[in-house]
Amino acid sequence: MSFNKPPRLASRILARVISKELYEEISGDMEEEFHKDVKSKGKVRAQILYLIEIIRYIRMYSGGRKYQSTNSLSMLQNYIKVAFRNLLKHKAYSIINISGLGVGLACVFIIFLFIRIETSYDKFHENGKNIYRLQHGYGFINAVAATTYERDYSEVKKSMRIHPWKKDLRITLENEDVYFEDVLMADSNFFSFFSFPLIQGDAQACLKDKNNVAISKSFAEKFFGTNDAIGKVLRIEGAMAATELPFKVSAVFEDVPYNSHLQFDMVVPFELLYDDPTVNILNLWPNDWIGNYVQLEPKADPVALEDEYLNIWQKYWDPERDTVMMDFMPLEDLYLNCYDLRSDYAKHGNANQVLIFSAIAVIILLIACINFMNLATARASKRAKEVGVRKVMGAFRKQLIIQFFAESTIMTIIALVLSIIILFISIPVISQMADINLLNGLQNLGPILLVAFFILVITILITGSYPALFLSSFQPVSVLSGSDAKQGKGLIRRILVVFQFTISISLIIGAMVVYFQMLYVKQKDLGFQPEDVLVMRFGNATALQQKWHRVKNNLEAMSGVTSVMASRQIPGDNAFYWGYKFEGFTDYEYPTGDAWLGYYVGFNTLDALDVEMIMGRTFSEEISTDSTAFILNESGWKRAIELYGESWENPIGKTIEYYTTHSGDWAMDKKGVVIGVAKDFHHHSLQRPIDPLVIHNVNSRYLMVKVVPEKTSEVLTKIQGLWREWDVPAGFNYEFLDEKFNASYEAEDRFNQFILIFCFLAIGIACLGLYGLSSFVAEQRTKEIGIRKVLGASEGKIVGMLSSEFLRLVVIAILIATPIAFLFMSRWLENFAFRINLSWYYFVLGSFVAVIIAVLTVSYHSIRAATSNPVKSLRME
Amino acid sequence: MKGDHLGELEELILLTVGSLHPHAYAPAIKDELVEKMNRKVVLSSIHTVLNRLENKHFVKSDFGESTPERGGKRKRYFEITAEGFKALEELKLKRDALWNNLLNLVPSYK
């Protein structure tokens, strides 16, 4: 008997619907019936009958409460009917409102998706809350910090290191297929430290042996055509020194999600570095090249541990040292919060961007909502009669409030439908433009729907509240007697218009400053000529040095090649610190300081890139001592004079000693004379100031070829042909120097473009609102205008009268907007090392543009009103 | 007066309550109606009618025993009151009067 219980959910519904005193009897009777039915008709039918019965009860017993709600239900129907009639009757008004709100909502959703993507980074690690990366101005430090922390401090639970610089290594499969891929080196606990899920293999053990390699699912498919790659063998050249070693696949992991700061497809053990005879700096402290991560105990204090770094440094490296920098960056903030590092292997977003976009989203939605409120109240006089009649017929204020909220709800829902259409069209376009797959933000729909619902409710509340409270407050006597038909002077409306225009003007000024700053950055003289220069990565550090003469001769013989360069660094790369001891001085700048930065270029580079020399000469292949010679840049020269006195006014011929840890200990690396001073050029992106540089002569790694523009493709095919002949230990890839250089602020550029787009949208929506508002004001005053015309007012006067009302508001808005815009834009410009001055004409021009826009939007209606025939408007009295 | 009026279903159920005395409760009434009158009435309708009858004081009710097939819930037994009986009787008398008339005036169908 107990097996056949009636459906529980249905019983529960019954319990809620039926009053307590009846429940026991009815549910008991029903259960009895149910059991009878089970016997006579079978379980399924019995359940169906039970359900049907319950529905009957619900109908019957909620009847008592229904009486009132039947009425309000039909009133609601009436509200909806009236709302739709109003929508259709005032088409222009509806279009303005709905399109404004629709575009606004679409912007908000797009920005929401963007923010969702940007804030989703590195949130999937199991212990992510307790993981920190050790950094200090650079995203990487030495190879000993994390392990020392783990050993010496009990609050540090685990440590893990990565070596992210093995790029473009030659991978050879058993079937002799060759690929060039990036390889990550990581401590053996990598997969248990982070939570990158494995498809095959053991997270604890997969990097234990030195010949293990873990590869991603897509690489497994690319290399072996299958997921099941465990035990397969591949050979990697350059994982250790310049040798080729066999590796055995020990694990296959899921492709790294886009929202990880670390992107990799192959992982080999970090341990290999200890066997690498060319790596002698693993135990040295002043080196920055290894990614260090620690996992702390949940209660540990990262700040206290940061401070301990000085003790550690003094204990293990230099007892004299009095300052060191150490920053424990929480893993989950890594992506957004350390975009200003000098250099990093990790992917970065920008927390400021997220903030600015959030602000813009709110502003756009607010402007659209204000439109709605303004237009609704502007129509107040038209609807006052309706309100009056409703009140006379017995409507309570509450019901009127419900009515106006119903209208704003309908409007908002239509706008939402429109915004969804806009989203469908625009998401693919924007994703392409922004180079962010916005669809990624659509994963996990639950919270999105919640936010969408939340935004919807907020919008309805904002748009509905003011009209609802304002319109419903009318006194029927005064409204219907017509004595006070122009309800209110619209003070709040004016405040809202001023508010809207304040925002719009700030945005116009902001957009102009952003645009001119972008233009300035693009047109700024870089101090060198980046055009028509091909950049090719020539494998490891030594390959190009060994093959330089052959490569150079081959290329110079080619028609279309202007010059051939080899360079350890190219413009756009980050300059390195090290120690420099200038002639006549015993102290050297300690590494990791920024008094001097080294920049490593090869023969020809400065000449071919047209870097101007202030004095002396550039490196020459003919002079053998030039391999150890130095060139200062202008900033470096000035710093030398400042630090080492006037004797450096003429630096040519003076010696500089260069200290590094390249030999395996902190020691003099080379000593050479200064042979020239180069004019300052932008060796990295314009966001940073030009560093004081000591320029070295190192002709390795990058092969650069300046070409005659028309022959570019011809030269490229020829180089590609020679590539195999030269036996370059890297795949053939090329880039153009100017594009590569610009790429360093491409993200910023794109971000600014989006700000511009959203600004224009915001201004557009605000204008739509003003347009609608002016039309209603003009309409309201048709009789007044008619009488004025009859009494002899000129058309110009009337246009002036109608426009001046709005212009006054715009002028007030200008007065408020200017200081706001100044404040925000001067702070924004501080992000740039090279920036435009925030001069007065941006503000004047911005205000002027706002006035013009306002006049244009208002004038259509004021001119129409002014030119209309007074007979028509006055006849109806 | 509306309050004293007995609808057709009300009358039927009131009768059944009386005829099942003292074991009249909703499912039993339902079965009885099927058996004696060949009439299917859903449980909810019976409940409604019973409540209405109780409001008119034609029946009174009391909780009885519970059985396992009721999920431990008690039965509510209905009992016809004197008023209910009177109302039924009155209705029957009125009807009988009409019957007599009918038989007197059109005896041919019998």
Q: What gap, in angstroms, lies between the N and C termini of chain B?
A: 35 Å
How much strand content do the residues of chain A show?
A: 15-25%
Which residue ranges of chain A are poorly predicted, with pLDDT under 50 across at least 5 consecutive positions?
Answer: 63-69
Largest sheet of chain A: 7 strands, mixed
In summary, what is this structure?
The complex is a heterodimer of chains A (877) and B (110). Chain A is of the alpha+beta class and 877 residues long.
Give the arrangement of secondary structure elements.
The complex is a heterodimer of chains A (877) and B (110).
Chain A lengths: L7 H10 L2 H22 L1 H19 L1 H27 L1 H28 L12 E5 L9 H8 L3 E18 L4 E9 L3 H4 L4 E3 L11 E5 H8 L8 E8 L2 E11 L12 E4 L2 H4 L15 E6 L5 H15 L10 E4 H7 L13 H28 L1 H13 L4 H38 L10 H27 L4 H6 L9 H33 L9 E5 L5 H14 L4 E7 L11 E4 L14 E5 L3 H4 L4 E4 L13 E4 H11 L10 E6 L6 E12 L14 E5 L4 E6 L4 H15 L7 E3 H7 L2 H35 L1 H9 L4 H35 L10 H28 L2 H6 L2
Parallel strand pairs in A: 3-8, 5-7, 14-19, 16-18
Antiparallel strand pairs in A: 1-9, 1-10, 2-3, 2-6, 2-9, 4-7, 5-8, 6-7, 11-20, 11-21, 12-20, 13-17, 15-18, 16-19, 17-18
Helix pairs in contact in A: 1-3, 2-3, 4-14, 5-12, 5-14, 5-23, 12-15, 12-17, 12-23, 14-15, 17-23, 17-25, 17-26, 23-26, 25-26
Chain B lengths: L7 H13 L5 H12 L5 H13 L3 E8 L7 E7 L1 H24 L5
Antiparallel strand pairs in B: 1-2
Helix pairs in contact in B: 1-2, 1-3, 2-3
